[in-house]
Amino acid sequence: QLDADNYETDPCLKEIRRAENYSWMDIITIHKDKLPNYEEKIKTFYEEHLHLDDEIRYILDGSGYFDVRDKDDKWIRISMEKGDMITLPAGIYHRFTLDENNYVKAMRLFVGEPVWTAYNRPADDLPARKQYMSFLDEEA
After folding, report:
1. Is the pLDDT of residue 140 over 90?
2. I want to staple 34 with a disulfide (CB 3.0 to 4.6 A). Which of 16, 29, 61, 135 is the partner?
3. Rounded CA separation 63/61 (Å)
4. How many Å separate Cα 83 from the centre of its chain?
5. How far apart are CA 44 and CA 51, in angstroms?
6. How confident is the model at residue 124 (pLDDT cuts 50, 70, 90)?
7. Any idea which UniProt keywords this protein has (predicted)?
8. pTM of the predicted model, to two decimals?
9. Element (H, E) at 82
């Protein structure tokens, strides 16, 4: 169990970061009064996309939804709230949106330097997507 109220000193979070080699992190607050270009950013986050690296998010406050595609290309909505952590694998199509509270504060974690590039769908020709699809085939 992670302690979102004390994330700076939480030994469980420290161990996860060490074990997974999450060497870089920052904190983003998504709220109309806190995020520059809020409307534009919200639209960007909700565009279906993928990344070449895993996307790791730890919710420190507030709540929202990650939508991901299952192996049959249907949406799965994942409710995220304070204390939740998620790792979306490289190559998975996804999007993020706030819930009715219109607020979330999240830690973004990376292995090495952050790469922010999002590849909007379709991006099936990218190696990360092909690798992810191969992983799904192996699991089936």
Report:
1. no
2. 29
3. 7
4. 14
5. 13
6. very high
7. Amino-acid biosynthesis, Cytoplasm, Dioxygenase, Iron, Metal-binding, Methionine biosynthesis, Nickel, Nucleus, Oxidoreductase
8. 0.95
9. none
